[in-house]
Amino acid sequence: MQPAVFQVSSKPGGAPTALATGDPLEAPLGLVMSCDGKTIFVADMGGEAGAILAVATSGGASPVAAGGLTRPGGIAMGPDCKSLFATGRLDDGTPALFQVPIGGGDARVVYRGAPLVAPTGLHVDSQGVAWVMDHHALGASGEGVLFAIPADGSKATEVVSNLRMGTPGGVSLTAGGGTAVMPTRDADGNAQLTSVDIATGEVTQLATAVVDAEAGTIYRAE
Length: 222
Description:
By secondary structure, the protein is mostly beta strands.
């Protein structure tokens, strides 16, 4: 079985088309589309240090230089469409949030260290705030935290904790940015969507899975 990146119609019943298979892909986790729709950027944790890869929508994959960033687990497009944000680790293993030019180059450290422990999925909003999921961070209510990190990297603020996150983790904000939505699991291990009101911290569970890695299925929730 080879790792691959697929394209599939958003309409039910569409057959998937492989855009890239095998090397240099090893363990692709997060992905984000470029603003012009021509490139998919992939966070790949495989190999000794992992890599950020660029997959053309016409087919084929190539590495994106990201000096100082290892083990990328989540990736998002910056609001300027010129830079990528990625979760990962420094060379010494410190968990961090990075910013990388889409054309490649040295990764700028936006935030590093505690309270981050194992950051994965993220979303960057129009104000440059990074909403970062961390499977193993310990928050006020328990393990599994969604953090908000401003563009200047001045702090990592807990938004909600005690989240039973899926693997890989993912998070997105609704239009207007008032609500964060992420896939989680309930106490019995059943897949669900969790929405969080950013202003109040109110949590609502939606019994619908969007991506189910174990079932090998993509769902559309409306």
